[in-house]
Amino acid sequence: MILPIVAYGDPVLKKKAKEIEEDYPNLSDLLVNMFETMYNAHGVGLAAPQIGRSIRLFIVDALPFSEDEELSEEEQNELKDFKKVFINPTILEETGEEWAFCEGCLSIPDVREDVFRKETIKIKYYDENFKEHIETYNGLAARVIQHEYDHIEGILFTDKLSSLKKRLIKGKLGSISKGKIDNDYRMRFPQAKKGR
């Protein structure tokens, strides 16, 4: 089932999410719905707060990035198979040089800006079967994880922009929170409800 994606301005996107237990109700259905929702919106990652659930869970599928011709063949192959569920994750360390990449977000349609992040991360998480993993990721795989991880910490990529960039996109962000945008997937707008 395709779920509406929560738009910028909804308080759930600014809350630090809570951990879940292995017996979380209907977890497998939730994961199926999240993947369906993400694919419908042409995303490469989706965090539970983006569908209105303040829990420490996100999914990724970086297949679309694997078609980037600027990447090495090794990087393309790594991203081709990079489809995962992250439950109760903790980033243990971020290392390497900071590098810029133009990021976007399904909760903030039509806004794309360069964000600086470290190139390598080490993360501990549970998969959909609640099996624990500790893994290291680099490059775009690390970036997708960092972006989604920020969501469960209540941080949006726009929070990482300079004050000048924030001022330049302020009008766009206001329009998004009021539902005054034209996009091709279902969304839930915080201020549109108040006006009804």
TrEMBL record:
It comes from Aquimarina addita. Removes the formyl group from the N-terminal Met of newly synthesized proteins. Requires at least a dipeptide for an efficient rate of reaction. N-terminal L-methionine is a prerequisite for activity but the enzyme has broad specificity at other positions. SUPFAM superfamilies: Peptide deformylase (SSF56420). InterPro entries: Peptide_deformylase, Peptide_deformylase_sf. Belongs to the polypeptide deformylase family. HAMAP family: Pep_deformylase (MF_00163). Its EC number is 3.5.1.88. Fe cation binds at C105, H147, H151. This is Peptide deformylase.
